[in-house]
Inverse folding.
C-alpha cells in the first residue's frame, strides 16, 4: 500500500518498527561500501591471465617492428589504437592511446584549453567567464575537473534518452561563454540511460556560439553491458559531427579501467585530425610517451574486439546478481510504498535512486551511521548541490551479492524512516 | 700537432684527404643514431626478469594489505615511495609516486603553477612576465616545457661544479619574475658534471625575490653511475633547503625510465609537506591514481635499494665500452689537433663536445648527410639557440660499441673538415 494512503497512526506504527530494525542493524556493526564504481575482487580475477601474457623470453616488438620497451611512439602503438577505436566505434586514425586514466585525459584536455586555447582560440585563462553544461544527475569527477578550473557549471536535466536537447540547443547557441558539455552517452553515470539516435544527431548538429565549444563524450561504459541479448548501441558521435558539418566539435574518451584493472588499464582519446594536431604538439612537450608495454599487453591478451566482448560477458555474469540483489530488495520493499524511483540499467556501474525531496542527505547519513558508505548525497550534481536533495547513487559492483542484500535492506529501512519522518513533520 | 700551428698548405692538404675520407663514408650508406639518451637493446634486456615477477596466481596485496589491482592509493604504494625515496636520498614521507614519466611530472608542476599558482601565490597565467633560469648547456626537453608556457628563459653558465652561483644568486634575489631554475644536479645532461656540496648549499640558501620561486631538481641520473668505484654522491637538496630555512623551495624529480624500461618505469616527485598539500589536492581532481601494479612490480623485482644498485652496475658494464669507444677516438684524433674539448663523465647518458665557435651546426649537418643523426646543434640551449654555435651533445647509449666506433670516426672527420674550413676562411 502506498505510504501516502496510510493514516498518521499507521505511519507512526511503521516508523516505530523500522527504528527498532535500524537499532538492531546498528548493533551488528556492519561495514559496507557502495560509494564508488569500483570493480569487485571477483571482477579483477577475470583478467589475471594478463600476467601470463609476457615472460622474460618474449619478443617485445609491436606490429611495426618497434621495440615497445624503449622510448618512442608518443601517441600509442597501432594495434592498441585499433583496439581502443573498436571500443569507441571510431576510426583508429582519430585515436591517441594514453596511459592508465581517461579522467586524466579529460583533465589534460580542459587544462590545455585553459592554458593555450582550442585549435587557436583564446586561452580560457584569459577570458572573463567560462561556462559548462552539466546534464544531471551526472559524474562527480567530471564536475570536479570543471570546478577546479573555475568554470561555471550550468545544470541541464538528463532525460530518459539523453540531456534535454531543447535546453542544450538554446543555451549553446546563445552564450559564447559556454565551452563544453559533459556527456556519458551510454549507461550513464549514475542513471544508466543511453542517448537515443535523435539526441546524438541533435548533439552533433549543435550550432554553438563559441568556436571552441566541444562535446566531452566520456564513453566510459562503451562495452559494459549487463546482458548478452540486450546490448545498447549508440551512434558514433565523431561520424555524426562530420555529417553535420561540425567535424571538430567533439572529444571522445574511453579506457579499459573497468575492463581489465582500474589504474593499470589503457586510456584513449578520439577526435578529428584538426583537433589532434595541437594536442600532439602539446603532448610532445609533456611526455616522451605512455606505457607501450601495457598497451601491447592489452592487445596480446584480448587479441581483438571479439576478445573484449567475450571478456565483458564474464564481467556481466558477475555484475548481474549484484544489480539484481539491490533491485529485488527495492522492488519488494519500495514499490508498493511508492516512496522512491530507481533505474534498472542495461549496463554500466550504477543504480540511481530518487527519494522524496529533502530526504537524500539524511538517508545517506543514517546509512553511514549504520556502517554503510554510499556516495555522498548531492555528489551527482555540480558543487555537490542537489537542489531537491533527492538523488542517491548506488554502486553495487564492489560488494558481494550477500553484502548487497544486507546493504539494500539497510538502505530500504533508512529510506522508509526518513520518508515517514518527513511525511509526519509536514 | 695542434691545427693552429699548421701552415695553410698543410691544412689544405689535410682537408683534401679528409674530404676523400668523408666521400668514402658517404658511399657506405651507414645509418647511425646518437641523437637521444635512449638505452640500448642490451640494456633493456637486463630488466627482462621484471616480466617473470607476476603471474596469474600471484597475490596482489601491497604491504598495507591493499589490492593494487583496484582503484585507490592516489599518491603511490608505501613500498614504492620508499624505493623512490632511496633513489633520491630523501624521506619517503616527502614522496609521491606517479606514472611512467618524470618529464610529465615536471610539465604538470609548471602547468599547475601556471593555472593555480604555487602554495597560494598568484597563478602565473595572471602575471605579465614569468622568467626562468636555464644553466647551459642543458636538457632540451626542460627548455621545451618552459617555452611552451611562454616563460622567458635566461641562460646561466654551467661550470665544472654546477651553475655559476654568483649569477644565480644575483638574478634570483633581484627579479621576482624569476620563478624557477632547471637543474640536473648529478651527471648533468649533457656535460655530465655534478653539483659540488658548496653549490648545493648555495642553491638551498638562495634568497629569491619571488615567494613562489622553486628549484626544479631533476635527479634523472641519481643512480646512473658508470663505475663501481667512482660514484658521485651529492647532498640531499630537500634537507639542505630545510637547514637553510627554505623548506619549500625545491621540487625534486626522478624515474626508473633508464633503470628498467623507458616509458614503462615509475616516476616520483619529492617536496616538502606544505608543497605536497596543494599538489595532492589538484591530483585528486586529475586522476584516481597511477599504475600501482607497475609500482609493485618494480618493488618486487628490486626488493630494495641494494637491488637497484646491483642492477645499475649491469647497465654500467654495458655503457662503459660505449663511452670508451667515443672517448678513445676523440683522444686519438682530436687531442693533438687541439680543436675541440669534451667531457669524460662518471655517469649519466651523454658526452658533451665543444668545437670551434660557429662550427657545431655545420658538423651536425655533415654527419647527417653521411647517415649519422646527432642531437640537433643548439638543442642544449633555450630556444635551440647556442650563441657560439659550438656545443654538440653525443648520446652513446643506443648504438653498439662497433657502431659507436664508426660514428665517432665520422664525427671526428666532420669536426676536422669544418674546423679547417673555418680556419681557412678566416
Amino acid at each position: 500500500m502506498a505510504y501516502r494512503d496510510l493514516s498518521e497512526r499507521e505511519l507512526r506504527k511503521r516508523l516505530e518498527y523500522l527504528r527498532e530494525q535500524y537499532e538492531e542493524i546498528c548493533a551488528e556493526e556492519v561495514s559496507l561500501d557502495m560509494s564508488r564504481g569500483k570493480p569487485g575482487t571477483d571482477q579483477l580475477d577475470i583478467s589475471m591471465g594478463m600476467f601470463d601474457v609476457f615472460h622474460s623470453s618474449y619478443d617485445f616488438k609491436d606490429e611495426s617492428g618497434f621495440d615497445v620497451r624503449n622510448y618512442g611512439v608518443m601517441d600509442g602503438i597501432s594495434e592498441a589504437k585499433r583496439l581502443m577505436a573498436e571500443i569507441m566505434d571510431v576510426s583508429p586514425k582519430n585515436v591517441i592511446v594514453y596511459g592508465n586514466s581517461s579522467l586524466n585525459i579529460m583533465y589534460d584536455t580542459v587544462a590545455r584549453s585553459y592554458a593555450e586555447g582550442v585549435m587557436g582560440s583564446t586561452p580560457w585563462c584569459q577570458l572573463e567567464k567560462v561556462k559548462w553544461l552539466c546534464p544531471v544527475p551526472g559524474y562527480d569527477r567530471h564536475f570536479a575537473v570543471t570546478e577546479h578550473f573555475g568554470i561555471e557549471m550550468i545544470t541541464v536535466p538528463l532525460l530518459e534518452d539523453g540531456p534535454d536537447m531543447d535546453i542544450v540547443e538554446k543555451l549553446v547557441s546563445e552564450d559564447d561563454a559556454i565551452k563544453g558539455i559533459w556527456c556519458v552517452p551510454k549507461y550513464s553515470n549514475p542513471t544508466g540511460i543511453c542517448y537515443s539516435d535523435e539526441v546524438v544527431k541533435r548533439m552533433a548538429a549543435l550550432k554553438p556560439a563559441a568556436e571552441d565549444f566541444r562535446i566531452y563524450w566520456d564513453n566510459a561504459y562503451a562495452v559494459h553491458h549487463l546482458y548478452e541479448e540486450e546490448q545498447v548501441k549508440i551512434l558514433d558521435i565523431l561520424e555524426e559531427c562530420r555529417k553535420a558539418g561540425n567535424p571538430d566539435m567533439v572529444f571522445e574518451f574511453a579506457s579499459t579501467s573497468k575492463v581489465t584493472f582500474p589504474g593499470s588499464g589503457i586510456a584513449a582519446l578520439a577526435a578529428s585530425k584538426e583537433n589532434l594536431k595541437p594536442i600532439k604538439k602539446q603532448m610532445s612537450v609533456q611526455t616522451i610517451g605512455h606505457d607501450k608495454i601495457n598497451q601491447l599487453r592489452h592487445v596480446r591478451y584480448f587479441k581483438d574486439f571479439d576478445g573484449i566482448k567475450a571478456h565483458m560477458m564474464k564481467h556481466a555474469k558477475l555484475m548481474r546478481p549484484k544489480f539484481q540483489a539491490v533491485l529485488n530488495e527495492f522492488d519488494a520493499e519500495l514499490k508498493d510504498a511508492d516512496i522512491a524511483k530507481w533505474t534498472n540499467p542495461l549496463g554500466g556501474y550504477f543504480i540511481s535512486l530518487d527519494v522524496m525531496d529533502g530526504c537524500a542527505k539524511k538517508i545517506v547519513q543514517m546509512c553511514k551511521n549504520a556502517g554503510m558508505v554510499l556516495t555522498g548525497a548531492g555528489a551527482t550534481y555540480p558543487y555537490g548541490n542537489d537542489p531537491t536533495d533527492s538523488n542517491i547513487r548506488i554502486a553495487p559492483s564492489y560488494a558481494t551479492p550477500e553484502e548487497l542484500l544486507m546493504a539494500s535492506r539497510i538502505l530500504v529501512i533508512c529510506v522508509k524512516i526518513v520518508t515517514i519522518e518527513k511525511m509526519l513533520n509536514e
Chain B is about 40% helix and 15% strand. The CA atoms of residues 187 and 348 of chain B lie 5 Å apart.
